[in-house]
Amino acid sequence: MKSLIFLFSFLVTGCASVADVENSQKNSSFVGIKGGNLIYQGEITEESNNSIFSSFRNAKIKPNRLLISSHGGAIGDGLALGNWVRENNLNVEVTGTCLSSCANYVFPAGNLKYLRKDSVLIWHGSAWQPQWDSAEELSDKFKTYITVMRKKETDFYADIEVDNLLPVYGQSKISLWDYIQSFFGKGTVGYDYSIADMKKFGVKNIVVTGDEWNWRRYRPSRGSLVKRIKVDDDFEFKLRRFEM
Predict the structure, then answer these.
(1) 71: which of 12, 43, 87, 219 lies 20 to 30 Å off by Cα?
(2) Looking at the 3D structure of the chain, how many domains does it have?
(3) What are the tens digits of pLDDT across the range 25-48?
(4) CB 89 within 8 Å of CB 60
(5) CATH code at position 176
(6) Do the beta carbons of residue 106 and residue 98 sit within 8 Å?
(7) Partners of residue 206 on adjacent β-strands
(8) Alpha helix (H) ranges present in 120-170?
């Protein structure tokens, strides 16, 4: 059981391999305002959040769109950014890859959610992923932390009217073989959903810029890294599905 928990955790927290999905973030990061838009490129951190908050606060003309490409960050920092997006009624546009905390909290918080033809969304877990409950070796400090994050995450998803099963649903559809391959740096690093299935979770107002959203066609070398998850036909939407 501990081996399975370790493999499961690797998929969710193994940022080294996950970060490789977005090659354009290797050496480039920028947070601020350009061309009348808010730009967030790089890891989601408290420092970068404070920078974008300050830029917005000091702008004479307030931008209404956040352009983001990020492989994610800590749960708390992702929630802080997502809540800020919601509170300021911002639109969100994914310019490259939006992974982990970016997909969990920033993208669904947008008023309008723009996807380009090659925008990549990747989920791979959240504060509510079930292995945290079965891993006996976790420290008391981490258990306290994850309890706080779970409450904040539940409140966040309720505020944006999204089923908080969204970021963890795909975990039940990933095979053991997928986890084993991830451990060796191969196979799947996460999962995504069709636009129709995202709407089942409550992620609405998705706007496709151009003719299509089909990033696998435009980024074929990365397609095998992300498993497309089909949401069950009998799925029923529920707010506060997970709650402390």
Answers:
(1) 87
(2) 1
(3) 445 799 999 999 999 999 999 999
(4) no
(5) 3.90.226.10
(6) yes
(7) 113
(8) 131-134, 140-159
